Amino acid sequence: MLKKVPVQKAVGTRLAHDITEIRPGEFKGAAFRKGHTVCDEDICHLQKLGKNHLYLINLDKDEIHENQAASILANGLAGTGITWKDDPKEGKICLYAEIDGLLVVNKANLASFNMVDDVMCASLHSYTLVKKGQQVAATRAIPLVMKRTPVERAAAIGQQDGGTFFVHQLKNLKVGIVITGNEVFNGLINDKFAPILHKKIEDLGSSVSGIEFAPDDVALIQQAIKKHKNKGCDLILLSGGMSVDPDDVTRKGISQAGATEMNYGAAALPGAMFMVAYIDKTPLIGVPACGLHHKVTVLDLILPRVLIGEHIGKKELAFIGHGGLCMDCPECVHPHCPFGKGM
Amino acid sequence: MKNFETLVYESAKVHGHLCPGQIIGVRMAMLGCRLIGLTDPTCHCQIKKLIVYIEMDRCAGDAVAHVTGVKLGRRSLKFADYGIMAATFINLETDMAFRIISTEEARDLAPFYAPVIVGKSAQQLEAYKLMPDSVLFRVQRVNVKLKEYDMPGPTRKKVSCSRCGQVVRDQREVVIEGKPVCKPCTDDTYFSNAHETIWDDMDWVPNNGASVSDNNFIQKNDSK
Known about the structure:
Chain A is of the alpha+beta class. Helices cover about 30% and strands about 25% of the residues of chain A. In chain A, the strands form 6 sheets. In chain A, strands 15-14-16-19-18-17 form a 6-stranded mixed β-sheet, sandwiched between helices. In chain A, strands 6-7-11-9 form a 4-stranded antiparallel β-sheet. In chain A, strand 18 (about 275-280) and strand 19 (about 280-285) form a beta hairpin. The model of chain A has no long low-confidence stretch (mean pLDDT about 95). Chain B has about 220 residues and is α+β, with helices and mostly antiparallel strands. Chains A and B meet through helix 3 and helix 4 of A and helix 4 of B.
């Protein structure tokens, strides 16, 4: 229960909640923390913050304070790889990445959680690469005091399937590269794909175990794949030959090499002629030629997900369509842009 | 209790079609029974322990009735005409009672749980299978004071209407100036302008009046 008292009569009482001060462009934070004992000197400051009354709280048995609610909510939302401190500021608790990795958000949980009255949680997009200590989400109860039951229900929703937010560590995979194409194989042009793929792989913490070159020949592409497979590669990247020309036979080579699942075509531009296939459990990624001249393509959306062990099937390649259109900005600011974030 | 899939299949058959309401009703009933500690409400040992108040005359209502086995004629099914997607499950042995309310937000959340399903109804149907109980329902612990005359079992009381002579059971009469009056005589009815009538084939009796023993009845039905 909340009792409203004039600020002058609140001297000697303890503040029921943090009181926020905003000085535009200069400061935004708690001017006074919950539990602070109001003294005469505070009155003027409080009035400058627009506080002519304060609340005194007397909680009923089934009520909880916003800070306690925030703790319950954060505990429900946090999955593995997420850390948070039970030290709410202005009624809010922030969730942080416990490790470097890929943030994965259970969007059904998050939507369901936010449909519960009087609670909220906002987060970064799912599949954002994050660093240890980086804030990934924040949650709070909206009212100062609320009933315990809806808070616990929201927390139970957040905890469904182990939590709503996870940071998965990117595995250090042994990656084999196959560069296909007669033009490169026969030395008509120099390959420029391998260094690009090499860098992307290493930037994500994996290593390239070898590079094979093959002409536009199904049997030789198959052989190159098998060579990587026999060397124990965890992931094989293939470039070139992913288009629709008669010489584009990389897909056939992947099939002949024993792919049990092949998903060709991704709802992203650049990167429509992208492929993810599997030989047993080893993923193979076919990178179309756009990877040569666009800084960021569908590969940058999917590769981190493969590196956390996610199985990429038809729906994973389809669902990136919303937000899957690169704006092709003169100066690329990815990942600080909408590309691939509409899923 | 049978598994979820079997209950949905049976419920849809009894109801006449499979719809999102069947999923909601089956799950609501499964949760309700779990909360009041009944593991198999239709079995002989539990069937008399349960009363369910259903607040909606919608598809889900049939599913709740099917899963729990409650019936109007057994007085284990009560209809509270609130127009709310909710039902209350009462364990008569322990007096434990929970009211389960289907959340409105579950409809809006269906696309999150079944994004690949096209069509509102089909998407809801699939999504309602996947949502956790905490998203599908809100639950209230409630007290339900059952009157003696609402309980299952034989008729507790019969009175004759002081105006028309109609027998009224279980204290459903209205007392006016100290005398029992049936509801129709108070004009507080769902019908109006009632008058006796005749109809075609008024002399019809089953099997042309031949007596039908229980055994015959069972055999005839079994041979179908």
